[in-house]
Amino acid sequence: MMIDRTPKILALDDDATWLEQIPMIFEGMDYEVQSYANIDQGLIAIENNFYDVVLLDLNFVGDRRTGLDVFRRIAAQDSEVDVIVISGETEPKRLVEIMNSGITHFIPKPATVDEIRKSVVTAIKKKQIRRESLLHSTKKNTLLVGSSPAALKLKADILQAAKVGVKDILIQGETGTGKEIVARSIAELADPSTRLYPVHCGAINDGVAESELFGHVKGAFTGADRDRAGAFEAAQGGFVFLDEIGDMPIHQQAKLLRVLQERKVQRVGSTEEKSVSFKSISATHVNLENAVVDKKFREDLFYRIAKYSIHIPALRERMDDIPELVTFFLATRLKNEFTITPQAIDLLFTYHWPGNIRQLESMIETMAYRCENKIIREKDVCQAIPDLSRLFTPKQAITMLGKHGHSPISQERKRFQKALTDASGDRTKAAQLLNMSRATFFRRAKELGLVTERRKRDVTEINTSI
Known about the structure:
Layout: E1 8-12, H1 16-25, E2 32-36, H2 39-48, E3 53-56, H3 67-77, E4 82-87, H4 92-100, E5 105-108, H5 113-137, H6 149-164, E6 168-172, H7 179-190, E7 196-200, H8 207-214, E8 215-216, E9 228-229, H9 231-235, E10 239-243, H10 250-262, E11 264-266, E12 273-275, E13 279-284, H11 288-293, H12 299-305, E14 308-311, H13 322-332, E15 339-340, H14 342-348, H15 356-370, E16 375-376, H16 378-384, H17 394-400, H18 407-422, H19 427-433, H20 438-447, H21 456-465
Parallel strand pairs: 1-2, 1-3, 3-4, 4-5, 6-13, 6-14, 7-10, 10-13, 15-16
Antiparallel strand pairs: 8-9, 11-12
Helix pairs in contact: 2-3, 5-6, 6-7, 10-12, 13-15, 14-16, 15-16, 18-19, 19-20, 20-21
């Protein structure tokens, strides 16, 4: 049940008449088109959605900001999006600035239908070619499932890390996002023998645990009946995976720093140093920048392990991958013996998945074991994820178990999204438009998966005021 992602196009122009023509330009083409006449509305849309192509005007009446200002915001949030500027700008100096900014293409107004279509189709085809190349390059690692922009960026980062051969790599991401999978992917791509030695750094708190990293000599402690090489020695040019390095006791971090700096180890119970050859991949769910400020993680160690840094997006940041992930779990974990209805898939999109991909995998197995006739339906999703019941009134909860069970949540999400758009991103005003308190608005928006990490500060402020 592989579901391809429909290309999404955003048109941002202050000419309402022109915007009305955009859907007609792409009529009959399998594209999802959205349009806004206001910069703030466009920025909200860009913040909450991934777009393949943005059709952008340069000048907006009554707004000091220009299309180039918007372009820079877009590029900062999503470097993969193609921006096509459609403008009547004729000043040579401005045209040079536009072309040097990094936009994909410039089309002067008045633009023809064929010009716009050709430019968009070309941009999307190039993007699809890049996607297929990435998917092919990582094909042997079937655990890297997903074709959303966030997933493709992650794959590109993995390929680059393996390609450049950097010695020390840091992977950061929430619990359950697949940090070890990413580490193994890098090792697999960079080292045909896939030498990866995992060590859980949170357990490095005594001599016995230290021996996992540094090794020990016979008699170093009770039970050390023979010499033993640690992970750094055993790697022999391969990778040592320092899992949850953010949980490592700070008094042990100095020993690790020395090994990373000098590429030498001293076995527990020995006075002799040995030169070792290895590459390190560190992973953590902890925000190490904050840990450094709080004096819980050494600043020099942070810079040492983060010569190349990879961020793994949370599942709520790559929701478009849910159908592919579900298909993958049904095929690999449950041997294609179960199917899932489109309505049940839709319902999965409404949950915020605090446990990320690990939680999704567990929930799919739970649903499969409880479903009837080996078909996962909406009611199975609701039984496996009780938190979803908070999104419904009792009457809606009954409706949810029927044929169109996903409709109430989808409609509620659209209602909240429309309020945000109408309020130009002002969440207090959006709450007023929905006739609810700001605190209620934030709670409901969070339950609907509309509050992202970037808004966590606002949520904290609201919770504090309740």
